[in-house]
Amino acid sequence: MAIVHPDTLVNIWLFGCWLDEVVVIGFTSDGNCSHVSQDSGQEDFILQSERHILLKHEFHPLPKRHNYKLCVQSRSREMSDGVVKVMPFLLMEDRRTAVSTDVPPRK
User: Fold this and answer.
1) CA-to-CA distance for 52 and 22, rounded, in angstroms?
2) What are the tens digits of pLDDT across the range 13-33?
3) If you write DSSP's letter for every residue of the chain in order, what string do you get?
4) pLDDT tens digits, 47-83
5) Where along the chain do its domains lie?
6) Largest CA distance in the chain
């Protein structure tokens, strides 16, 4: 899990496959991608390729022991009958995609 200072602009690097198909990246604090409070579209991406996405993002503070989870939405698809299907947000359930604003005190 990444830990960031709240209300500070940070670089978000995503690595994977088929990332050139992603059109929106969002973050949810309740695990439900229907409740994405902050999202970034392709126009906000600094870099996008098949294997990388880079964007800048600012996370608002959350209560202790709460974190943001990553949601991604792929581009719409045209089905064989010609109907365009808008793809839903998908929740990335990997711990490595979580972001916390609960910065531990320095020792």
Assistant:
1) 10
2) 999 999 999 999 999 999 899
3) -EE--TT-EEEEEEE-SSGGGEEEEEEESSS-GGG--EEEEGGGEEEE-SSEEEEEEEPPP--TT--BEEEEEEPPEE-TTSPEEPPPEEE---GGG-EE--PPPP-
4) 999 999 999 999 999 998 899 999 999 999 999 999 9
5) 2-100
6) 62
Say what the pTM is.
Answer: 0.86
Please check whether the domain covering 2-100 is classified as CATH 2.40.50: no
Cα separation, 33 vs 80, whole angstroms:
27
pLDDT given for residue 59 in this prediction: 94
